[in-house]
Each structure stands twice: as structure tokens, then as C-alpha cells.
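INTERNAL AUDIT FORM
Audit reference: QA-55
Scope: verify that the stored structure record matches its stored sequence.
Auditor: D.O.
Record contents follow.
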Amino acid sequence: MSRLLTIPILALLLLTTACANHMTVNRISQAKSSTTIFLRPTNEKTIFLEARNTSDNPNATLSDLPARLTEKGYTLLQDPDKAHFIVQVTTVFAAKAKPGSTLDSLVAGGFGGAMGGAIGTAATLGSGKGFGWIPGGAAIGAAAGFIGSKVTEDDQLSIVADCQIIEKTKEMVEQVVSSQTTPGGGLPAPNNSLVSLFGGQSLSTPNAGQTTETTQEVHRGNERIHKSRYASMAQEMWMDQNAATADLVKRLTDSIAGLF
């Protein structure tokens, strides 16, 4: 094959491989919860709100939640004992998601649980063999196509928040509440080596070497406890992380404010 024919073939490989990796130009964002929360209708419109952020992204705090609840006619109190609702929201994860992660995998662990998801691999080269096993000039085409796919590959950003709502009740309630904890947060650790990029896993296995502890507590009193994990995910090629973070925070804020 002449060199003149090689150039357009490589270009075609690059383009077709890139198209296979979606090339999402307009950002796609979604949100989901692990459990549906139903609050009993009441004329009591007082809330004690606590919004925290334990992730590495300081912009991932649901800071607009107080204003959203006020717009709905609720009064925010500083004393939790006087409020009808106690709302606690903690952002537990805010970073780029692993390739292959889904909203289902992010909320699968439930409130306080670990975050699962697919293990990202370097395209078809995830076997660890790299390019050496591809014969002849095909290796050049595979390399061009793989690099093209990485250049045009979509970014995925995820924000995960755990939400607990305590509502006061007139009747006595007996409730069994389960919670999960994973030492170290149970989050995947990135691997930035060039070897992993071209010949192996791009991220380590989530929760490797960790255990998840499940605790059950029996509550008796005049209050009902609701717990749920909320996750939002954005997908876009060449993503502006700040803009995507703002978008995902708004989606989570809308989801939690929508409960009231």
C-alpha cells in the first residue's frame, strides 16, 4: 500500500473511532435518587437546614437550597428542636466519573453506602497487551484511532449527596433505620500513568480492599426519618467543569427542594 493511501485511511480511522465515543457537543445532565421520599402533608412550614460538603470540590455545596425552600413558603429556623423538619444534606463526592459509570451505580449503595460503577479500561487495549500484539501497519492505525478517540472522548462529571430528613409526628413512631459506612469513602482512585492509558485499566477497582459496615437502629418517638442518596451526572466532550458543576448542583437542589 502506498503512503498516499495510508494518510486518508488513518484519518478515516481517527474519525470513525472518535464518532464511536459519542462526541457529545451539548451537555447532557441527569439526576436520580436511591429511594423515593414521601413527606406527610402538613401546615407546619418550619425547617432546620444543614448543608455540608465533604467532597474535594468546594463549589459542590447545595448553597441555593435555603433560598429555594424559602421561596416555597418555609421558614428556616436555627433551633432544630423548634423546627417541624430537620433537613441534612452532605455532598460526599464531586469529581469526574469513571468511564462506564451510570447514575444507577452511583446510587446503588444507598444512603451512606459505597459508590460502585464499571471499571474503566483503555478501549479495546484493556487486556494489558498494548499495541505490540497488533501486526504491521495496523498498529499505526489502531494508535491513531485510539488517540483520536481520547481527544474526542466525552467527559463525565458526577456529584453525589446524601440527604436525611426528619419530620416531627403527632403519633408515636417505631422505625428501623439502616445506614452504611465504608472506611475511606469507597471511592475509586485515579491512576495517571501512561501505561494505564495505552495498555490497561484507567482507574483502579472501586472499594478495593475495603469493607462496608451496615448498622441498624431502632428509633421510637414522635419523628419519622427518611434517608436517600441523590446523584447527578453530566456528559460532554471538552467539558467546562465549573459550568457542569453549577448545572449538577442545581439539579440536586431542584430534586431535594421538590420534596417540599
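Auditor finding: record pair retrieved intact. The radius of gyration is 23 Å.
Action required: none
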